[in-house]
Amino acid sequence: YFHDGVRYIDYVIAYEQGDEGKSEDGKVEELRRKYEENLKEKGLQIEHEPKEKTCFVKVHVPWEILLRNAERMKMKMPLKEEKVEEQKKGSSGMCSCFGSIYRKMVSPCLLNRLNDDSRLVPPDYYTSEFVRDKMDFFDIKDEKTFFTNSQRSRIAYRLMSETRFGTKRIDIGINNLIGEGGYLAAFPLHEVNSESKIPANANLRRLLYWEWARWGRWYKFQPLDLIREYLGDKIALYFAFMGYYTKWLWSATIVGLAVMIYGIVTVCLYNHSQEVCDETYPTYAGNLTMCPLCDEDCSYWKLKTSCLASRITYVFDNEATIFFAVFMSMWATMFLEFWKRRQFQLSYEWDLVDYDEERDLIRPEYEAQVTRERLNPITGDMEPYLSTKDKYTRTCFSLVTVFFWILVIIAAVFAIIVYRLAISAIFAVSIDLSSLGAIGTFATPAMLTTITASLLSLIVYEKVALWLTELELPRTQTEFEDRFTFKMFCFQFVNFYSYLFYIAFFKSTITGSPGNYNYLFGEWRWEECDAGGCMYELSIQLIIIMFGKQLWNNIVELVLPWAQTKYRQWKSQKVSAEMKDNEYTRWEQDYDLNQFKEMDLFYEYLEMVIQFGFVTLFVAAFPLAPVLALINNIIEIRLDANKFICELRRPLAHKCSDIGAWYYLLEFIGNLAVVTNAFTIAITSEAIPKLVYYYVYSLEIYPESTYVGYVNNSMSYFNTSDFDLRSVPNNRDPFGEGNVTVCRYSLYPGYLSPPNANPPYAFTTQYWHNIAGKLAFIIVVEHVVFLLKRLLDYLIPDRPRKLRDKIRREHFLVQNMMFKAE
């Protein structure tokens, strides 16, 4: 409160006291003086809190100003009449039985504990847009409690954003004044968060900390209604999405673990990896001599040296992989469809259906920079107007710039590939590239990809995307966020996924074959996939990138902000201790917390969308991706909760009814996942060639139709005398058995005729059968999955019928109540 103990502090503004005699400080002080005078003219009350260095201005919005602006902002406020819920019909059957067991045993529900306290869960009222002429019909019991703290701060911020501090067009709003150096920060105050256990009269912040933000509550449900009341709809919707996404990850985790367990159990039984490990030829192929994996320094090697890699590959790439890829494509569709229903349900419960008070609010930056005006046909007011030509010019320039930076990202990925080629050639002298010891040659590029992507995103891409978005001059904050989201997603998508696309779809196709290798810049031979196959390498890359990215994000979000906050608090407390009569006030404590930036929530969503891509796009290569995502999200929810309650200044409680453009990006990734998984199984995996061999060719050798002999069948012969001079290995007798005359290779396209055939090294019939099988698989899987996705989209309505009827009923009752008020 103010010093009188009556007026509530709705907003706090901080500034630093400058040195006297400096002309620049005098100019800044004049801007502050004009701004504060204009705030008083709007009816706001302010109180100064002078300090030794950092001073504070406390802002209070009087009752009459609250009423006037609540009507102007069309805030939905509670009416006197409570909702009368229809008595729920008793449900029966197995579904209700299992649901009851789940609620009572599996989910120790936090909400049930909170519902026992009537202070925390007030009666549910009908709401309507506030009108001062009909105040008697609104539930106004007390002037101090009618408006919540978040509503008061939102009104204060709206008035502060519309207040001028100079004569220029851009001299308007608290944010611009902070940018001019007039103030350091502006924020609403947190409620007191004592360190003791919950007292009888615990406030929202303390209750949220004790029952939600602590690590010991990781298994509890999230109190979304309380989060919304304290932090606002926008942040509450983010936590609702996180919780719902994490809940759905459980099913993907269970199926993914089942696929992994199946691979681990069956790897010990007969399969093609057993042929690689056993040397008994011709039934087994472990003793086959393989062609060198690089020029000169690499020598011939035995296939059995890749035994461990082939077994690991089988764990990820087996018969269950096809099922899991199709399952995850359908899982993504089901998740998004049911999230739309859940989102609509929350919008109804929070009075946000078809309502967003800030959606059509013009950005101050747009008003300041657009000088041309025209009549708004809806409101009848003169508003700034950006011509169509100017708008298209700015948009085209922005798109060209985005495309240029995407090329820069691709160039960075290409540099990592070149590094890999160079490092492989260097290590070839001391490391057997066919053994597991070569893991460093393909693990380091994944680490470099993660580090490069994180640093470029932090240093370059955010600034470029922000500059381009501001250049486009979006009219509203919603348009600004959507455009910025699109640019950052393009950058991050290429950043994190481009190297994975290279391994999955291009690496095996550009290598060439013995006697006809391809070279980069005529110097470095394009590398082959690891001895375990491209699927093995893709799995390792996914593990490293997912784990590394999540570890980096948690360090950035937890360790650095915590250290910064503790340092500022220690510094302020030291100053307060030196000045014996100087109290460490509430506004000083909040000022020492880290600032909540508008883009903080954006990066939380971006992290989840990128993770959703890892879980769905290449899940055929790594079934444990949902497991890593689930563990990360359980930690992430409590990490973010603790951050918002304890480490950050209280954010402004923004209103919004959905997650915006993020849903469409998730839908794009879900559709792309169908294509990438189909191509991963057809191109990167050996699933299709194995099936073709099983049903077409093994019958000729083994009447019982098995996979026996697949490895030997899939490898082509090459006469070592046909090597180019640069490809001839220095050590032609690595096994002490005489010079090697014939070596084997199993590379795309593979299945070539032997050297003594006419013509030699030509595509065999089996090669074309494999191509036909792969094309048929891609076409059938894509069409079937997309058809099922469209069917699910049709069968699962975005808005449940019962809820739609309930909304219409409430609208009817509210209209009747307002008609009686007339």
TrEMBL record:
The Anoctamin dimerisation domain extends over 1-224
Q: Name one GO cellular component term.
A: plasma membrane
Compartments it resides in:
Cell membrane; Membrane
Source taxon at top rank: Eukaryota
The chain's coiled-coil residues are: none
MF terms from GO for this chain are: chloride channel activity; protein dimerization activity
Q: Which InterPro entries match?
A: Anoct_dimer, Anoctamin, Anoctamin_TM
Q: Name one Pfam family in it.
A: Anoct_dimer
* Similarity-based family: Belongs to the anoctamin family.
- Ranges for domain Anoctamin transmembrane come to 227-810
Q: What is this protein called?
A: Anoctamin
Q: How does it sit in the membrane?
A: Multi-pass membrane protein
Source organism of this protein record: Ciona savignyi (Pacific transparent sea squirt)
Tell me where the transmembrane regions lie.
248-272, 320-339, 396-419, 439-461, 484-505, 608-631
Q: What are the alphabetically sorted keywords of the record?
A: Cell membrane, Glycoprotein, Membrane, Transmembrane, Transmembrane helix
